[in-house]
Design brief:
Layout lengths: L3 H7 L7 H25 L2 H22 L8 E3 L4 E2 L5 E15 L2 E14 L5 E7 L3 E7 L2 E8 L2 E7 L6 E3 L1 H7 L1 H5 L8 E4 L2 E5 L5 E4 L4 E3 L2 H13 L14 H13 L2 H4 L7 E6 L4 E7 L7 E8 L4 E10 L8 E4 L3 E6 L2 E6 L5 E6 L4 E2 L4
Antiparallel strand pairs: 1-3, 2-3, 3-4, 4-5, 6-7, 7-8, 8-9, 10-11, 11-12, 12-13, 14-15, 15-16, 16-17, 18-19, 19-20, 20-21, 21-22
Helix pairs in contact: 2-3
Length: 369
């Protein structure tokens, strides 16, 4: 866990979080202008040194108050992990929580949102976009990343370039190009999903539709898909997106019930055990538990074989902050993508070994941290 001084020093570089970066840019810009003014106005080393020290104290105060330097800023995932077609880029939306003091015994929290894309080959930042609680990632669609925007009582859509994070279709452009879709789009996202390159949704008229990127048509199957996803997500968040055959969903629920009855799994019952994924094809499951009952205890993740009733591999992913509590998981072709609060972790699918670890506050690989 990072202490105050580590967080303070890390804060003196741009990290992609909008308010922090604006504050840092102002502090650096004003500081340079002030020191240049003193240098050319007074031309005395003493005046320059005094001004530098004074501004250093002042800028530290500004960075602590407005730039969160040194302060805790726990992060949790607010979307699943999504990937491009080649699965070389992982994208997720996260929320950072700022403690803004206490009023009448109630802690005041301010939420900051960001969409973060990570290059899975290098472990480096691909891009970041500032976001808000009114935006939701729907998933890869139409060759980009589909974003839902809650705008009062209506919903709107935009499309981002997965490689760069830049808008390919703004809300206005999307509405002009696909007016029939936007006209029936709800403000919420619980009845909206991308599956097998099609968008399924319940319209504000109570009818169910599919949209293939060009044409909108009524589709009664959309109701079954949305219902299946809602049911599965209540037990296994994000697991729907990891499996593509809808016939598997009932089997997944049955396997999960059998899994929780396994003696090996029940032995972790008092250690915050959670099932993160069930694979009905090879009868395996990804399970997590804490090493001890302490809130700061490390989280373990293991792959369990339900045929052989044994653990195939186990990996310590470290502590998960109180905001995230339970790690999120997305199964990719060759990796397990783990949402571990402040960090994003990639595990090899065959061995369970850690491939990369990325810090979501500083937006750098942890080995550089």
């Amino acid at each position: 866990m990072e202490n105050f001084f580590q967080r303070y020093f890390y804060s003196w570089r741009f990290n992609g979080w909008l308010r922090h970066d604006i504050t840092l840019a102002i502090v650096i810009g004003v500081g340079i202008l002030l020191l240049l003014f003193i240098m050319f106005k007074h031309r005395r080393v003493g005046a320059f040194v005094i001004a530098f020290i004074s501004y250093a104290f002042f800028s530290s105060f500004v960075m602590i108050v407005f730039g969160l330097a040194g302060r805790s800023f726990p992060i949790n995932a607010v979307s699943p992990v999504y990937a491009d077609d080649s699965q070389n880029i992982a994208i997720q939306m996260v929320r950072g929580t700022e403690n803004n003091g206490t009023s009448n015994g109630i802690t005041q929290l301010i939420s900051h949102y960001q969409i973060i894309a990570i290059d899975l080959k290098s472990g480096e930042k691909q891009w970041t976009n500032s976001s808000s609680g009114k935006e939701t990632i729907i998933g890869p669609f139409m060759g980009g990343l589909l974003i839902h925007h809650r705008d009062g009582e209506v919903g709107k859509l935009s499309l981002l370039n997965i490689q760069t994070g830049k808008e390919e279709l703004s809300k206005k452009e999307f509405a002009q190009k696909h007016k029939s879709l936007i006209d029936i789009l709800d403000q919420g996202t619980y009845n909206l999903m991308v599956w097998q390159n099609k968008l399924y949704l319940e319209g504000i008229d109570g009818k169910y539709y599919q949209f293939d990127g060009k044409n909108l048509s009524e589709d009664s199957e959309a109701e079954n898909l949305l219902s299946a996803r809602f049911s599965l997500d209540s037990d296994l968040p994000n697991d729907f997106d990891s499996h593509i055959e809808k016939e598997e969903y009932q089997e997944i629920e049955e396997l999960m019930s059998d899994l929780l009855a396994e003696p090996a799994i029940q032995s972790f019952e008092n250690l915050g055990v959670h099932v993160l994924d069930v694979n009905p094809q090879d009868k395996t499951a990804i399970v997590t538990y804490q090493e001890t009952k302490r809130e700061s205890a490390n989280r373990m993740i293991f792959l369990y074989d339900m045929n052989e009733h044994r653990i195939l591999f186990e990996e310590n992913i470290g502590a998960v902050n109180a905001e995230q509590k339970v790690p999120g998981l997305r199964v990719l072709k060759s990796y397990y993508a783990i949402q571990a609060g402040d960090e994003f972790i990639l595990l090899d699918k065959k061995t369970g070994k850690e491939i990369l670890r990325y810090h979501l506050r500083w937006n750098i690989p942890v080995y550089q941290n």
